[in-house]
Amino acid sequence: MAPGDFHLTMDELRAVAHYAAQHAEDVLPVFEHAVPDDPRPRAAIAAARAFVDGARRTNLQRVTSLDAHRAARAAPGEAARLAARAAGDAASAAYLHPIARATQVGHILRAAASAARVGEIQAGGDPAAGEALLDRSRRRATPVLVGVLRRYPPAPGGGGRVARLMSTLDGSLRGTAACPGTAR
User: Which of 145, 174, 162, 177 is nearest to 27 (CA)?
Assistant: First the structure.
């Protein structure tokens, strides 16, 4: 291991995948409404759920993640793209890298930030809708998830709205002494 790198347990990876899958499931209908005949994001969420429920990490999570990200690139409109990307992020969470790089935070929080942005879009671009969804994301964050998050450097700010939402969520979760979420 390189200096600053660490170990992640399967239970910790499952907590991250669960968190991402919850958010992906919330916005999956947005993608499926836009592209009703494309099963790739749903398959990615199912692969994430299989891992969360105790299945081993396999190539299934990797393949379905890549497929969902391909669906995102082909989706019409930002909301559908973000919904498919969240599904891909959920499946890939099983393979979160235990390396101390800020870019890894996206694998933990990008699905939540994408779901918040989808909410904003559905509310006519209202940032208050995104903030409300970030509040829900904060409540969903378990102590295990926050413990994993705190091992990484803070999320890079970035210029896009999803990056800013992710940075906001990251900062608020790191600043929380006792994580409010307890349900798995």
Answer: 162
